[in-house]
């Protein structure tokens, strides 16, 4: 019996037992470096947190596992976009502009005598921008190199599978995303960026204290230095608030409107998963609700929700679903009478309209991550 709650492999193996104990450097990096043009929020952390905070009646465990998988894909696309060539160039130009403005103001205000060491704070701020540009460049070229190596290894694997007669999609072990490769290797640039982020947060607090303590005397003694510090501090606050708000909106959308997220990923994704022919070969079923008489005659301890009947075959396969399993884990809607369902090789089933776009994004089950090939 196909069940959306009982996968072939136990779902407990893919549930993080400590969802709130992530990498502290990563969390600090995502939240506090406001002057960066690109922010990378941990969507998986948000999805897992909402799973803990939400009642099991509203979002049960299978539904949240599907949302965590979608959050992983969204985060991977976000990281790929963040390190794309146009964004990296824009990010470097953005931080370089801060360095130029800081150097110009320091030069024009060389005769000022502020009561607080604002020059030291501006120099530290400019140094952080320079370190950020260096780490971004290092990480960008590292990702290019790893993407090139991954592409070559995939080509070699496809050639070997073609020779052995398995076909280009015969072995799921060759499907390794860039995010999975990054998890296996932590670069020096990431350590540098994490340290720079922690220092920038502390440096922001120091600058805010100096500006607040100086008050109007700083504005009269060295107006250029004073207002430049105000601008830098204001930009940091603006970007932090913007990135946190955006992460909250995306996190809520992942949990409440997952079909919209899947449609968005499908619109921006390259052909990395299954083809149209692969999706059409997956089993399709039609759902039929049971009336009260059939439920009574079934003589089972749990109430039945309906029967899935395979479409397009002379000897259709039927699966009896309990009332709890007769719902889609993606849209959180119960199966209506006559609706078409798609069953994946692992046995999990969803609305055709909900899941058909997912294999184009990633050729795995969104619930148990079983490769559909």
Automatic annotation (TrEMBL):
Subcellular location: Membrane
Single Gene Ontology BP annotation: protein ubiquitination
Disordered: annotated segments: 1-32
Topology of the protein relative to the lipid bilayer: Multi-pass membrane protein
Pfam families cross-referenced by the UniProt entry: zf-RING_2
Name of the protein in question: RING-type E3 ubiquitin transferase
Catalytic activity: S-ubiquitinyl-[E2 ubiquitin-conjugating enzyme]-L-cysteine + [acceptor protein]-L-lysine = [E2 ubiquitin-conjugating enzyme]-L-cysteine + N(6)-ubiquitinyl-[acceptor protein]-L-lysine
Native species: Cucurbita moschata
Matches recorded under InterPro entries: Znf_RING (IPR001841), Znf_RING/FYVE/PHD (IPR013083)
Keywords tagged on the record: Membrane, Metal-binding, Transferase, Transmembrane, Transmembrane helix, Ubl conjugation pathway, Zinc, Zinc-finger
PANTHER family xrefs: OS02G0674700 PROTEIN, TARGET OF ERK KINASE MPK-1
RING-type domain boundaries: 328-369
Top EC class for this record: transferase
Membrane-spanning parts: 87-108, 120-141, 194-212, 224-254
SMART domains: RING
Composition bias, Polar residues: 1-16
One function term, GO molecular function aspect: zinc ion binding
Keyword Zinc (UniProt): yes
Gene Ontology CC annotations of this record: membrane; plant-type vacuole
EC number(s) given by UniProt: 2.3.2.27
Top-level lineage group: Eukaryota
Keyword Ribonucleoprotein listed: no
Main location: membrane
């Amino acid at each position: 019996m196909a069940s959306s709650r009982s996968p072939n492999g136990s779902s407990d193996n893919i549930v993080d037992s400590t969802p709130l104990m992530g990498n502290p450097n990563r969390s600090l990096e995502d939240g506090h470096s406001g002057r960066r043009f690109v922010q990378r929020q941990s969507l998986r952390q948000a999805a897992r947190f909402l799973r803990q905070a939400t009642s099991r009646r509203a979002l049960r465990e299978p539904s949240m596992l599907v949302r965590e998988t979608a959050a992983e894909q969204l985060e991977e696309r976000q990281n790929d976009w963040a390190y794309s060539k146009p964004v990296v160039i824009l990010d470097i130009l953005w931080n370089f502009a801060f360095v130029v403005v800081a150097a110009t103001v320091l030069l024009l205000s060389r005769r000022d005598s502020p009561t607080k060491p604002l020059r030291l704070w501006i120099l530290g701020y400019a140094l952080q921008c320079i370190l950020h540009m260096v780490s971004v460049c290092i990480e960008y070229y590292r990702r290019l190199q790893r993407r090139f190596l991954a592409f070559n290894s995939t080509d070699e694997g496809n050639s070997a599978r073609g020779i052995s007669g398995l076909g280009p999609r015969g072995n799921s072990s060759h499907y390794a995303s860039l995010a999975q490769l990054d998890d296996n290797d932590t670069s020096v640039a990431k350590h540098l960026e994490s340290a720079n982020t922690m220092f920038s947060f502390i440096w922001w607090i120091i600058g805010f204290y100096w500006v607040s303590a100086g008050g109007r005397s700083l504005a009269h003694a060295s107006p250029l230095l004073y207002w430049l510090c105000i601008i830098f501090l204001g930009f940091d606050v603006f970007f932090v608030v913007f990135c946190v708000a955006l992460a909250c909106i995306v996190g809520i959308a992942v949990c409440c409107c997952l079909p919209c997220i899947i449609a968005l990923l499908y619109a921006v994704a390259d052909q990395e998963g299954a083809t149209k022919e692969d999706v059409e070969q997956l089993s399709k079923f039609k759902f039929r609700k049971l009336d009260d008489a059939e439920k009574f005659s079934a003589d089972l301890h749990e109430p039945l929700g309906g029967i899935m009947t395979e479409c397009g075959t002379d000897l259709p396969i039927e699966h009896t679903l309990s009332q709890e399993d007769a719902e889609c884990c993606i849209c959180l809607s119960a199966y209506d009478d006559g609706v078409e369902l798609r069953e994946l090789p692992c046995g999990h089933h969803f609305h055709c309209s909900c899941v058909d776009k997912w294999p184009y994004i990633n050729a795995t089950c969104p619930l148990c991550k079983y490769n559909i090939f």
